[in-house]
Design goal:
It contains three helices and five strands. It is an alpha+beta fold and 131 residues long. α1 crosses α3.
């Protein structure tokens, strides 16, 4: 009696592993994108709340670095704008307009898949009062 696997058994195992992989890999990729979208939506909400709270306490926002500390490499603060960048470029722009006391949220939904899915998830161009 043989103690090794036959070629047919090995081929059968490889086919099963390929079927499982063909199902699991796309599911994993969709889960990763969903997590990124949820995180960015939460970040936008947190940034907006922080800006409004700071404005209510101080009456103006001179330096965004005093208001918000971003630990992510994906977010960037420049002057009065906070930008979320993806691999293909800048996707979300949050601009503080002190003259009109507004927060302007703009999204470039045509940039890549993440930006498109953010737009589909309800992140749209909006203007929110600072107070």
């Amino acid at each position: 009696m043989k103690s090794a696997f036959s070629l047919l058994e090995l081929i059968f195992v490889l086919v099963l592993l390929a079927l499982i992989g063909s199902y699991a890999i796309p599911k994993y990729m969709n889960t990763k994108n969903a997590a990124v979208i949820t995180t960015v939506k939460r970040d936008i909400s947190t940034i907006t709340s922080s800006l409004q709270s700071y404005f209510l306490l101080h009456g103006k926002i001179d330096d965004l670095n005093e208001v918000i500390t971003l630990g992510s490499d994906d977010w960037r603060i420049e002057e009065n704008t906070i930008t979320y960048k993806t691999a293909k470029g800048d996707c979300v722009f949050i601009k503080v307009n002190n003259e009109e006391e507004q927060i302007e949220l703009n999204i470039n939904e045509t940039l890549d898949n993440i930006c498109k899915k953010l737009n589909e998830a309800g992140v749209v161009n909006t203007t929110t009062p600072l107070y």
